[in-house]
């Protein structure tokens, strides 16, 4: 297994109290596989990724438990120096907002080239040549000229391509993409997702795609992990999950999105609001919003039950949910 | 449901923002053509959806419709009267009837005002709508109508979640009992599960208050859900407009087709059945709009004629005689019908065209 996250716990200490952002997340990604981590804001999907990448803000953040096994090594036990070598060379991250992720006072050529200078010890000239190659590879027109441009001189889609080029530079085995297309227009979104999928196939990378968009997931993912209040509530191959969700939250999400290919009367909304992370409801965190909740849900935290060999659901009543009774 | 009486008629609407150079002697060196000739009619009681990508001019259009901006040229007729020429008392009267819901519920509400003051503020400007002593009761009614607890009247915006704030924005828009509500990306800042609550709320209020909506958004699925008719904007113009199935199931303009084909559909089975049109390049700058058809620089069908002649927004000749759903307004010289959204296949548990479980939208507790 390329990346194996086990029982990860992350909390944030703030003046108002302790926010438990990640409460025992486990997931795994293999080479060439795309795992989508789906969740709404505050579900802990990005915090998990930051902990995996080692870019969590500490403090206020703190990893309070769990392991992050990358090719069998626990990243959480590495020294900063070693961690830095892994990051960038073996695993890389793509962010939502390329404009704030790129350095505004360096040309894109310098930023791309820096990867080769720092990690590969290349000369500036060779690094520049590699930067141009990368820009060509991610489809930036007139790369040889544009390598001297600054990030603000590119359009949103082109900037996201540069970010992909940067993540790809050292041919990492794993890429974590945090909402990579959310800030882009649909037509550009499609271009970027296609590029990512193509590069992933070419280099057989593992891809963790963090998103809130059920459409994007359906388009590219092999497996999906649905997060709610810092836990994975359902994990399944993507086809199974869309066909028959085994958790009422997943079902609620699928039912609440308007469809392009369907004109509905009324959307079936999930009632209420996502929980406050400083005050997560006891028992199943979803119970105040759940149409299926019973007494046991108020007291017992549901474990991730095995639905089938490669499916899990953290719902006491997953059988009923799976078979459509509620 | 929609009748036939037009409540708003927009014709030849244009808004240019001058580009100037120089400090002492400002010289105009060009113009950003944000809205560049828009025509449409809004019928009483209907929802007209406007979709387009960033920079297409849809937000400028919204600001023109609610008279926050004056157009460079063109007319907006509200019940037959051109409101772009009005001023003073007459303008104020019109503004009361055309209200707006903004995109960002975090920045469009004053953090120092209580919810009661925010929703009641329109009454300060239009005191004839509600007597001073009656206002508090009115505001509480409005809170109830949008699904918030009327007791929250003294709370501040930061005590509410994004979805609840958008409800407050909607309540404010309804305070003066307008006839038209222009909503500019009202749900795009919200989480998926909350988005559905607000969409349902807007649909319910439309019936309750007899509202006509102009619903502006970039999300084609949300727009389809709520709209009776849909207009597709590109670089300041509507390139295709028609009833919901005409646009989504029988699009004839290549831009609409590309846009629809790019939308991810939440159905992994559709991955193989779908046809993707990937457009090359980026949208040109509205300061340098291509000659002829403005979409031609990204269009795979473009020919010489497209650079020379601006295609009018009308029913293309080839569809005029045959009628049917392809016969709707489309500004393309080479309009062709092409279905890009695969027809839905029936899946167990989800019969097509019918949402699974009717959802309620109950009162919410504050975050």
Automatic annotation (TrEMBL), chain A:
It is found in: Cell membrane. Keywords: ATP-binding, Cell membrane, Membrane, Nucleotide-binding, Transport. CDD domains: ABC_NikE_OppD_transporters. It holds the Pfam family ABC_tran. PROSITE patterns: ABC_TRANSPORTER_1, ABC_TRANSPORTER_2. It is a peripheral membrane protein. Coiled coil: none annotated. It comes from the Bacteria. InterPro entries: AAA+_ATPase, ABC_Ni/Peptide_Import, ABC_transporter-like_ATP-bd, ABC_transporter-like_CS, Oligopep_ABC_C, P-loop_NTPase. SMART domains: AAA. GO terms for molecular function: ATP binding. Residues 5-254 form the ABC transporter domain. PANTHER family: DIPEPTIDE TRANSPORT ATP-BINDING PROTEIN DPPD (PTHR43297:SF2), OLIGOPEPTIDE TRANSPORT ATP-BINDING PROTEIN APPD (PTHR43297). Belongs to the ABC transporter superfamily. This is ABC transporter ATP-binding protein. The lineage of its organism: Bacteria, Bacillati, Actinomycetota, Actinomycetes, Kitasatosporales.
UniProtKB/TrEMBL annotation, chain B:
Keywords: ATP-binding, Nucleotide-binding, Transport. Residues 336-367 are annotated as: Disordered. Residues 8-260 form the ABC transporter domain. Residues 349-359 have a biased composition (Pro residues). The lineage of its organism: Bacteria, Bacillati, Actinomycetota, Actinomycetes, Kitasatosporales. One of its GO terms (molecular function) is ATP binding. InterPro entries: AAA+_ATPase, ABC_transp_ATP-bind, ABC_transporter-like_ATP-bd, ABC_transporter-like_CS, Oligopep_ABC_C, P-loop_NTPase. The keyword Nuclease does not apply. This is Dipeptide ABC transporter ATP-binding protein. Pfam families: ABC_tran (PF00005), oligo_HPY (PF08352). Gene3D superfamilies: P-loop containing nucleotide triphosphate hydrolases. Belongs to the ABC transporter superfamily.
């Amino acid at each position: 297994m390329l990346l194996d996250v086990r029982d990860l716990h992350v909390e944030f200490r703030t003046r108002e109290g302790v926010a438990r952002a990640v409460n025992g997340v486990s997931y795994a990604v293999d080479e060439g596989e795309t795992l989508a981590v789906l969740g709404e804001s505050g579900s802990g999907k990005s915090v998990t990724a930051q902990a995996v990448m080692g870019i969590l803000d500490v403090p206020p953040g703190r990893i309070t438990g769990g392991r992050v096994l990358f090719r069998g090594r626990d990243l959480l036990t590495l020294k900063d120096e070693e961690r830095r070598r892994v990051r960038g060379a073996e695993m890389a991250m793509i962010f939502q907002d390329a404009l704030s992720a790129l350095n505004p006072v360096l040309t894109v050529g310098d930023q791309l080239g820096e990867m080769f200078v720092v990690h590969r010890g290349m000369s500036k000239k060779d690094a520049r040549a590699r930067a141009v190659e990368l820009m060509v590879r991610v489809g930036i027109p007139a790369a040889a000229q544009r390598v001297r441009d600054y990030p603000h001189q590119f359009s949103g889609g082109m900037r996201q391509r540069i970010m992909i080029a940067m993540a790809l530079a050292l041919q990492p085995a794993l890429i974590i993409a945090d909402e990579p297309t959310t800030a882009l227009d649909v037509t550009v979104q499609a271009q970027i997702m296609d590029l990512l999928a193509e590069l992933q196939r070419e280099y057989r990378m593992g891809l963790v795609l963090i998103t809130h968009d059920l459409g994007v997931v359906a388009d590219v993912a092999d497996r999906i992990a649905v997060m709610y209040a810092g836990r994975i509530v359902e994990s399944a191959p993507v086809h199974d999950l869309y066909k028959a969700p085994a958790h009422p939250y997943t079902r609620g999400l699928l039912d609440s999105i308007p469809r392009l290919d369907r004109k509905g009367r009324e959307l079936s909304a999930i009632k209420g609001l996502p929980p406050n992370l400083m005050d997560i409801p006891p028992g199943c965190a979803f119970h105040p919003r759940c149409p299926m909740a019973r007494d046991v849900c108020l007291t017992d935290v549901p474990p991730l039950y095995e639905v089938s060999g490669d499916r899990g659901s953290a719902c006491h009543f997953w059988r009923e949910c799976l078979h459509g009774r509620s | 449901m929609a009748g036939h009486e037009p409540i708003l008629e927009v014709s030849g609407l244009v808004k240019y923002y001058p580009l100037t150079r120089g400090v002492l002697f400002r010289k105009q060196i060009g113009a950003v053509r944000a809205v560049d000739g828009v025509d449409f009619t809004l019928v009483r009681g209907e929802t007209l959806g406007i979709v387009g990508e960033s920079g297409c001019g849809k937000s400028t259009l919204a600001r023109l419709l609610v008279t926050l901006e004056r157009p460079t040229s063109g007319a907006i007729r509200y019940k037959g009267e051109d409101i772009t020429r009005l001023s003073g008392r007459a303008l104020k009267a019109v503004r009361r009837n055309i209200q707006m819901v903004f995109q960002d519920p975090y920045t469009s509400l004053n953090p120092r005002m209580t919810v009661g003051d925010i929703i009641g503020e329109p009454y300060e400007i239009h005191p004839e709508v509600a007597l001073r002593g009656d206002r508090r009761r009115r505001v509480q009614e409005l809170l109830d109508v949008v699904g918030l607890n009327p007791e929250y009247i003294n709370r501040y915006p930061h005590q509410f979640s994004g979805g609840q704030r958008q409800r407050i924005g909607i309540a404010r828009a309804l305070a003066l009992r307008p006839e038209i509500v222009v909503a500019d990306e009202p749900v795009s800042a919200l989480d998926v599960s909350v988005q559905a609550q607000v969409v349902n709320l807007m649909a319910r209020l439309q019936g309750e208050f007899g509202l006509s909506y102009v619903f502006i958004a970039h999300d084609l699925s949300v727009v389809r859900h709520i709209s009776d008719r849909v207009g597709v904007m590109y670089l300041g113009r509507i390139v295709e407009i028609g009833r919901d199935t005409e646009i989504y199931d029988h699009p004839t303009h290549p831009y609409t087709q590309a846009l629809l084909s790019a939308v991810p559909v939440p159905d992994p089975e559709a991955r193989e059945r779908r046809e993707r049109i990937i457009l090359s390049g980026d949208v040109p700058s509205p300061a340098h709009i291509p000659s002829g058809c403005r979409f031609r620089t990204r269009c795979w069908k473009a020919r010489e004629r497209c650079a020379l002649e601006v295609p009018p927004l009308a029913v293309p000749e080839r569809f005029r005689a045959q009628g049917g759903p392809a016969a709707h307004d489309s500004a393309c010289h080479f309009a062709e019908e092409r279905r890009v959204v695969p027809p839905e296949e029936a899946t167990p548990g989800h019969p097509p065209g019918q949402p699974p479980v009717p959802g309620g939208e109950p009162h919410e507790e504050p975050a």
